[in-house]
Amino acid sequence: MSINLRTVYAFAREMYPKVSKETIQYGTAGFRGKAELLDSVMFRMGVLATLRSRFREGSVIGVMITASHNPEPDNGVKLIDPKGEMLEPSWEKIATDLVNVSDQDLEQHVAKIIKDNEIDITSSSYVYVGMDNRYHSPRLLKAVADGVIALKGNVREFGIVTTPMMHFFVVAANTKEAYGKPTEEGYYDKLISAFEKLRNGQLENGNYRNRLIFDGANGVGARKMLQFNKRMNKSLDVTVINQGVGPGKINEECGADHVKVQQRPPVGMPIVEPFTRCVSVDGDADRVVYFFTDETGQFRLLDGDRIATLVAGYLMDLIQSCQLDLRLGLVQTAYANGASTDYIVNELKVPVSCVPTGVKHLHHKALEYDIGIYFEANGHGTIVFSDSSKAAISEAAKTNPKAQTLLLVIDLINETVGDAISDMLLVETILNQKGWDVKDWISSYDDLPNQQLKIQVKDRNVIQTTDAERVCVKPEGLQDEINQVVANYKRGRAFVRPSGTEDVVRVYAEASTREDTLQLAYEVGRLVQKLAGGVGPELVNPSNNAHL
Ligand code: 16G
Ligand code: MG
């Protein structure tokens, strides 16, 4: 096969010229931005995916087009590595450089990537590409596909799928279908079959009711949940709201991010009995949170920390009853509620590690355990099982029914990445087996009140952190001042970090009371404004406000 790199330049110049002069960066969630600026980025990512596949000796590389929980005008793209992980960090830099070169320099630049990485350009390459349901996604998908074609790679288009489905397809293909069939039906079959076997015809148990409201965020998750419904035959009774067929826009006033950040239900909620289980996923269905309203009408959230603790307790019990000697660990970020960490360490006695924000850090750390559970408080997470733990569980399953249950649980989990629907099916399985409703679930511990702020500064990179973002090392003196402020609050904890997805500094605070939490967040926010070049309006002091 001969490849003429001129073709890449010709495609770029004629069809996907670079329109934006601004430098963009491959961040924690790939490239994100306004959709109209992304055509050239997508084309080049098609080119890069093809090169990456060749670099990885013909393994399938995935490309997902989505802006996740962002508003409708945005879109984005991320690459999926052969084992379903996020793109390797050294290639993030290659990706950033590639999208920022001019059209004129593109041909040379691609030649340099090929040379530097000793890529055999004549070898085969396979790229899978999928997209969310934003109206500009099909146009951007075509640009990715053209990037693959320009370098004579093989491209397979999956149409509208969730992000975790794309990860699943990539792993299924690269394991020669040991993980499942790399098709939409293959994905449904694997999850539904495990779910129904685990339910074993028992649809209700104790306080557990077989009924659920599912907020699809007007995104891909809604469509796919409807597909699950068709195939599940009411083994789970799910009502899907915010289906994306009405005037509502993706993530607007709905979805996991809205529910978690605003701490209130999504639009479109039907009137339901208090304590009805409700679930919100984000636009590409890789995040999930639960919520309900209590008998006084108060909104209550069950976020990623709650899911992590529920799963950790359940798996710990299963392992112990199978008498398996497996190391189970839980991975969180600094955003995990302090009460959840205390509960895991003191009650569940499961070891916890804390890593920087971003799925790749959590996933990587979780791989160190035999069974690694990871969740961000925002609802992104999954569980990974080492090959040796799978072998031990399979062996035990020959005689032990609990180990058989554990094997089905493994099949129910999408280990490749956080998967809102798979996580939800797991939570439903656990609640059903325990005979729990949301009241039982939420009563395992009390969350500490917490508050987040966004602070605008001249340059957010002046903030540098260490110790999984819990300690700020630059600008000098800021951490000392934060420590002094925090010391005044009972169970106080706070940290600051530059966002990886927005041009802001984030502040997190928690303390024993709501008032203290708001005050602590305010004081830390003020410190950031003072010492890290704040440019926004002055923060409002909540204690002054309370007297107004
Ligand atoms: C991205 C990350 C998510 C993280 C969030 C933090 C992935 C796939 N996604 O969405 O894990 O929680 O960024 O955003 O890694 P921030 O840096 O703006 O706070
Ligand atoms: Mg998402």
TrEMBL record:
Residue stretches spanning the membrane: none
Enzyme class, UniProt record, top EC level: isomerase
Purpose: Catalyzes the conversion of GlcNAc-6-P into GlcNAc-1-P during the synthesis of uridine diphosphate/UDP-GlcNAc, a sugar nucleotide critical to multiple glycosylation pathways including protein N- and O-glycosylation.
PANTHER family, per the entry: PHOSPHOACETYLGLUCOSAMINE MUTASE
Residue span, Alpha-D-phosphohexomutase alpha/beta/alpha domain: 60-96, 110-175
Pfam families listed in its UniProt record: AMG1_II, AMG1_III, PGM_PMM_I, PGM_PMM_IV
Pathway of action: Nucleotide-sugar biosynthesis; UDP-N-acetyl-alpha-D-glucosamine biosynthesis; N-acetyl-alpha-D-glucosamine 1-phosphate from alpha-D-glucosamine 6-phosphate (route I): step 2/2
Keywords from the UniProt entry: Isomerase, Magnesium, Metal-binding, Phosphoprotein
InterPro entries per the UniProt record, alphabetical: A-D-PHexomutase_a/b/a-I, A-D-PHexomutase_a/b/a-I/II/III, A-D-PHexomutase_C, A-D-PHexomutase_C_sf, A-D-PHexomutase_CS, AMG1_II, AMG1_III, PAGM
EC number(s) reported in the record: 5.4.2.3
Lineage per the UniProt record: Eukaryota, Metazoa, Ecdysozoa, Arthropoda, Hexapoda
Name recorded for this polypeptide: Phosphoacetylglucosamine mutase
